[in-house]
């Protein structure tokens, strides 16, 4: 009977910890789905822009546009597809590992998601920069006419693209600084054993070591009123 009560108490502690980690998992999945949708939009833009190379007026464009424009489009399409694939796989496989995996798979899934999330975000950032590179190469297409109007339009489009890229970087840094977190807190329980160095210091290992500590802590807190009542008597 006592063993069953202790096991039930430990299971309740583990369940509460998993509920906290589930919120962290849902945050990653929701963000991955949003950015995957934006990556799909960039893929559509890049694929549609490839039709421009089939037009007759493209053949009379400046050599810079005729050679660099397709390269910029391929870079845009490639990194957009990479971001789309990575974020889609995170949203599909991450919850599957956390739900169907063995004991401790929630922490393993979150560790893997955090790594792949940063990689996919880098791919998405490169895709955004590639959009501006495509616009700049397109702007030089009219320079072949060597008229003042064509040169002026090309310079204006180039300056607007560079300024837009500068604004994106500036506001990304500004928003990142405003929402910067000095010390990131995860849903993993941090017990006293995590303060000392250990050969296995991954977040998943820390959570697995902390499960027993959390159950012990909860059990001791539950027994405290009883000990107080016994000492009073």
From TrEMBL:
Disordered as annotated region, ranges: 190-233
Keyword Transmembrane helix: yes
Name of this chain's protein: Uncharacterized protein
Species of provenance: Diacronema lutheri (Unicellular marine alga)
Composition-biased stretches (Basic and acidic residues): 195-211
Keywords in alphabetical order: Membrane, Transmembrane, Transmembrane helix
Membrane spanning residue stretches: 25-53, 73-99, 120-141, 147-169
Membrane among keywords: yes
């Amino acid at each position: 009977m006592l063993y069953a009560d202790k096991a039930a108490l430990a299971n309740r502690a583990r369940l509460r910890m998993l509920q906290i980690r589930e919120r962290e998992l849902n945050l990653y999945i929701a963000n991955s789905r949003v950015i995957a949708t934006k990556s799909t939009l960039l893929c559509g833009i890049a694929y549609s822009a490839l039709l421009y190379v089939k037009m007759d007026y493209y053949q009379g464009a400046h050599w810079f546009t005729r050679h660099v424009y397709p390269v910029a489009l391929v870079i845009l399409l490639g990194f957009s597809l990479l971001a789309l694939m990575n974020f889609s796989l995170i949203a599909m496989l991450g919850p599957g590992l956390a739900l169907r995996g063995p004991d401790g798979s929630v922490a393993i899934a979150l560790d893997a998601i955090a790594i792949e999330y940063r990689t996919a975000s880098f791919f998405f950032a490169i895709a955004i920069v590639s959009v501006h590179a495509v616009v700049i190469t397109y702007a030089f297409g009219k320079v072949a006419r060597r008229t003042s109007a064509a040169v002026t339009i090309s310079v204006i489009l180039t300056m607007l693209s560079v300024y837009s890229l500068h604004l994106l970087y500036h506001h990304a840094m500004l928003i990142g600084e405003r929402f910067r977190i000095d010390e990131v807190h995860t849903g993993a329980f941090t017990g006293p054993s995590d303060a000392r160095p250990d050969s296995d210091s991954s977040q998943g290992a820390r959570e697995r070591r902390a499960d027993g500590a959390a159950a012990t802590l909860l059990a001791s807190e539950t027994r405290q009123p009883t000990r107080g009542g016994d000492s009073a008597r």
